Automatic annotation (TrEMBL):
<protein>
    <submittedName>
        <fullName>Aldehyde dehydrogenase</fullName>
    </submittedName>
</protein>
<dbReference type="InterPro" id="IPR016162">
    <property type="entry name" value="Ald_DH_N"/>
</dbReference>
<feature type="active site">
    <location>
        <position position="268"/>
    </location>
</feature>
<keyword id="KW-0560">Oxidoreductase</keyword>
<comment type="subunit">
    <text>Homotetramer.</text>
</comment>
<dbReference type="InterPro" id="IPR029510">
    <property type="entry name" value="Ald_DH_CS_GLU"/>
</dbReference>
<dbReference type="InterPro" id="IPR016161">
    <property type="entry name" value="Ald_DH/histidinol_DH"/>
</dbReference>
<dbReference type="InterPro" id="IPR015590">
    <property type="entry name" value="Aldehyde_DH_dom"/>
</dbReference>
<feature type="domain" description="Aldehyde dehydrogenase">
    <location>
        <begin position="40"/>
        <end position="494"/>
    </location>
</feature>
<dbReference type="Pfam" id="PF00171">
    <property type="entry name" value="Aldedh"/>
</dbReference>
<comment type="similarity">
    <text>Belongs to the aldehyde dehydrogenase family.</text>
</comment>
<dbReference type="InterPro" id="IPR016163">
    <property type="entry name" value="Ald_DH_C"/>
</dbReference>
<dbReference type="GO" id="GO:0016620">
    <property type="term" value="F:oxidoreductase activity, acting on the aldehyde or oxo group of donors, NAD or NADP as acceptor"/>
</dbReference>
Length: 503
């Protein structure tokens, strides 16, 4: 296992960064174009040193009511009648402003989530790219004319819902927020966004940086717990649409709340994604892809490729190379350029992951990892070594349940049919991967995999141009792409009688 050469001064460095970011801005909810505080607050912990960064408001149902009322006022008086070109210009301006503060946002992601610098940069860049994409495509929206009959002019129009609610997770806070805010604002909606109570800082700051760009009250961020604020958003009668990203368990609750009032929802939920490694796979490429698919962002990824299904003829070579790849990660301070893996985001997630690892020790064969790194400089953080289990079967707990940490399971298959059966034998269907040099096998496998996303000989690219979302209990509806823009609009059919008027 590699370790950062920078083994001292982490604690002081992080405390200094805490002072720096809190001096740049106050972190509160954002309602009606200004900071919004409440009597109750909660500290946001730095997962590297387990020390508070800043306290943020812990809002409740009354605060959600206020934000919704504010959003409706803004929508009806200052936003509903804006043109697509106007919204496009404002979104581009917001993206440019985020670029101007990119380093600040990257630092917040490192402190708040424990992401290494390179990964935090990628997330912030992805967030900006998402906003730019929707700034571009919102001007290209069109209705349609339907040639029904000679004396009838029949056409369709697209219109916003009004006020929409959005709930985003703790693992990709800023990027996930833009996946929802981008299309919703482009479509002409006003937004109530609830970030995770564990990692809200970059999202709060991004909202603050929208001041003067969008009319006050169009973009609102309400901080608080899922049980209070999240539920209030999902249940609110005046929130006309809900978009949720998070666990399948919580998604069911959100969906139930919205269903009670017949509100439309989109759901991006959990995953237990397979990567099939066929005998002809280029292991130089595929080992890297599978490692990235489970160890990137410390495995706290909904589309993590956590089940490696490897043909029995190459499993020994694959496993040997994969263990080497796992042990090459450098665990250290996320603020160091040398670090390639940071801590888990919270103490609760650390406990969850380590409990799954203990279960895995009883079920399968542990090849590497399985504990905290032997580095005193990291002892205060929620670090878990890259962990690999072999001799796994698909009935084991570690193969069935979403761990959300850097834990890989290796299983074998004998032939194509068994590979597909194993890959699809899960309640989830978010992502999948294929390792092969055969073009025909790529297309056949992609067609047979029951998942919304397929990676071939790689892992990682997520572009705003393409829809993102899963099948089965991984959710329904899509983030990103033009499809997300459609989700934030209602379609209206207009029938115009063209009969000759009678005088």
């Amino acid at each position: 296992m590699g370790y950062s050469s920078e083994s001292t001064g982490i604690y002081d460095r992080h405390l200094s960064k805490h002072d720096e970011v809190t001096a740049q801005s106050e972190f509160s909810s954002w309602v009606d174009g200004e900071q919004y505080t409440t009597a109750n607050s909660q500290p946001i912990q730095d997962p590297v040193i387990d020390q508070p960064i800043v306290d943020i408001p812990k809002c409740d149902v009354r605060d959600v009511d206020l934000a919704v009322d504010t959003a409706w006022t803004a929508f009806e008086t200052r936003w509903e009648d804006t043109t697509a070109s106007d919204r496009s210009a404002r979104l581009f301006e917001w993206a440019d402003t985020l670029k101007d503060h990119q380093d600040e946002l990257v630092t917040l992601e490192c402190l708040d989530c424990g992401k290494p610098l390179s990964q935090a940069r990628g997330e912030v860049e992805g967030a900006i790219e998402t906003i730019e994409f929707y700034a571009s495509v919102c001007r290209a929206q069109r209705g349609s004319e339907i040639p029904a009959q000679k004396d009838l002019h029949l056409y369709t129009t697209q219109e916003p819902y009004g006020v929409v609610g959005q709930i985003v997770p703790w693992n990709y806070p800023l990027w996930a927020a833009t996946w929802k805010l981008g299309p919703a604002l482009a479509a002409g909606n006003a937004c109530i966004l609830k970030p995770s109570l564990e990692t809200p800082l970059s999202t709060i700051r991004a909202a603050q940086l929208s001041q003067g760009i969008f009319p006050d009250g169009v973009l609102n961020v309400i901080t608080g717990s899922g049980s209070d604020v999240g539920r209030a958003v999902a249940e609110h009668e005046e929130v006309r649409k809900v978009s949720f990203t998070g666990s399948t368990q919580v998604g069911r609750s959100v969906m139930h709340s919205a269903a009670d009032r017949v509100a439309p929802v989109t759901m991006e939920l959990g995953g237990k994604s397979p990567f099939i490694v066929f005998p002809d796979a280029d292991l130089d490429k595929v080992v890297t892809a599978v490692a990235d698919g489970i160890f990137y962002s410390t495995g706290e990824i909904c589309d993590a490729l956590s089940r490696a299904l490897v043909h029995e003829s190459i499993v020994d070579e694959f496993t040997s190379r994969f263990v080497d790849a796992a042990e090459s990660y450098v665990l250290g301070d996320p603020l160091s350029e040398e670090t390639t893996m940071g801590p888990l985001t919270s103490q609760s997630q650390f406990k969850t992951v380590t409990n799954y690892i203990e279960t895995g020790r009883k079920e399968a064969t542990l090849l590497c990892g399985g504990g905290k790194p032997d580095n005193a400089a990291l002892s205060d953080g929620w670090y878990v070594e890259p962990t690999v289990f072999a001799e796994v079967t698909n009935e084991m707990t570690i193969a069935r349940e979403e761990i959300f940490g850097p834990v890989q399971t290796i299983m074998t298959f004998e032939d194509y049919d068994e590979a597909i059966e194993l890959a699809n034998d899960t309640q989830y269907g978010l992502a999948s991967g294929i390792g092969t040099e055969s073009t025909s096998l790529v297309h056949q496998t992609a067609d047979d995999l029951d998942a919304g996303l397929v990676y071939v000989n790689e892992y990682g690219p997520i572009l705003p141009d393409a829809p993102y979302g899963g099948f089965k209990q991984s959710g329904f509806g899509k983030d990103l792409g033009l499809e997300a823009l459609d989700h934030y609009q209602r379609q209206k059919s207009v029938y115009v009688n063209l009969d000759e008027p009678s005088l």
